[in-house]
Design a protein that fits this description.
Layout (H helix, E strand, L loop, with lengths): L2 H11 L1 H82 L2
């Protein structure tokens, strides 16, 4: 179909159809220009989120190690407190004879 035939068909359909066709063509050009950029931006964001997720795996391991060490220290302190309490009770028995 040549441009002459397209224009002839459009003229038979009326000026409303010409305006609608022009609007559709303009919207297509805008979408073609900006959707490509939008898709590239979304791909960049997805790769950034993937890198962030990989970085948090190391953080998780660090936090687990810290918590495990903190739990060990807490258990040691409880054992030491029990030991000190028992020694104080023995001293109290020796001094007061209770």
């Amino acid at each position: 179909m040549s441009w002459a035939e397209v224009l002839k068909s459009l003229s038979f359909w009326g000026p409303g159809m010409v305006i609608a066709g022009t609007m559709v063509a303009a919207l297509y050009k805008l979408a073609d220009k900006y959707l490509g950029e939008f898709i590239k931006a979304q791909q960049g964001q997805a790769s950034s989120l993937a890198a962030l997720a990989q970085g948090t795996e190391g953080l998780r391991d660090s936090v687990q190690g810290f918590v495990a060490g903190d739990n060990r220290e807490h258990r040691e302190m409880i054992i030491l407190l029990k030991c000190v309490t028992e020694k104080l009770e023995r001293i109290e028995e020796q001094v007061y004879g209770c």
